[in-house]
Write a structure and sequence with these properties.
By secondary structure, the chain is mostly beta strands. The chain has three domains: about 100 residues, Immunoglobulin-like (Sandwich), CATH 2.60.40; about 110 residues, Ferric Hydroxamate Uptake Protein, Chain A, domain 1, CATH 2.170.130; about 130 residues, no CATH class. The strands form six sheets. A five-stranded mixed beta sheet has the order 8-13-14-11-12. It has a five-stranded antiparallel beta sheet with strand order 15-18-19-20-21, with no helix packed on it. Strands 3-2-5-6 form a four-stranded antiparallel beta sheet, with no helix packed on it. Strand 5 and strand 6 form a beta hairpin. The radius of gyration is 27 Å and the shape is elongated. The chain starts with a helix and ends with a strand.
Length: about 375
Amino acid sequence: MNRSIQKRALALALVVAMGSVHAQSTTGSIVGSVGQGSGTSVLVENNSGFSREVPVDARGRYTAGNLPLGTYKVTVKREGAVVETRENVAITVGANTDVSFAASAAGSGVQTLDSVTVSAASLTTIDVSSVDTRTVVTAEQLQQLPLGRTAEAIALLAPGVVVNSGGFDNGPLGGSLPSFGGSAASENAYYLNGFNTTTISNNLGGLTLPYGAIDQQEIFTGGYGAQYGRANGGVINQIGKRGTNEWKFGAAVIWEPNGLKANQRDIYWRPDSQGSTINNAAYRYARAANGLYQPASEAEANQTTYSAYVGGPIIQDKLFFFLAAEQVNSDGVRVGTNRDTDNGRTGGLTDYDYKQKRWYAKVDWNITDNHLIEVTG
């Protein structure tokens, strides 16, 4: 009896978990207008063999939804013949990318033109179909921006996001936690490829991807839907890279020695603190330490980051993989404040030495153009 109940409970938990994964945004959409014309369709295809052809409705509109992230070629076809093509269309997670064509693309008549004017135009970056407030940072932007190699450092690019100052300093991997619009760091949520990875014990931080495995990071600062529950602050949604028909691999070592960093300045009490006759704890600390509050110049920090990745096809156009790993070695001296009321000793000098390891694995299987399987580890 108990075993039967356990099996049913496990099955229910799996169903709920699967539903929660599908509820989070890990894909994008391509929409647009073509113009009226019977027999018109739009074909979208990427460099991993994925393709989907959708019809154009009576109003000349089309929608290709739930597309894996990547760069697409969009082609307008009429009765099987190619009419017009757009290359290198990059889609954004959880958003509609508008790719519209001239109304004449759907027409079949031949026209004689007096003149032709060619002008440059870029695709719109405003998605008017969404009501939330979000910032999306892509892998291409991460390669160009001088950022800390953490999800929290990337989140600081969004408006209204600052480093938390409420006493919660670091997440599970050592990164400083952000505050969204004045909320506490414990009110944020973390998602990775649709899974909620927020720390269960205290809601401070969450598991995130190796820096080189981030395809896109979505930062919600307000107005997000119920699918991102259990969050009153902000939401960090990371989408990992996937393999394609093209082999990609690389490795890097980043060395940050303490000797190449500027020394911090010591922090002192107010000048009148030492001579004061007030007999409270703060002034006793000041007199005992000769006015020195924190010897910050004695702090040291050395860090070395090792990272590597590889991705490519297992079966061309069908089965792909992507692997990434990262290890951060940190050592140095942390400096606290002077708290010895007898002789002003600095009781806050602490040596530290630790390693942070992160890895990521993803397998994608294109069963058909409408059925995909993704496995993330």
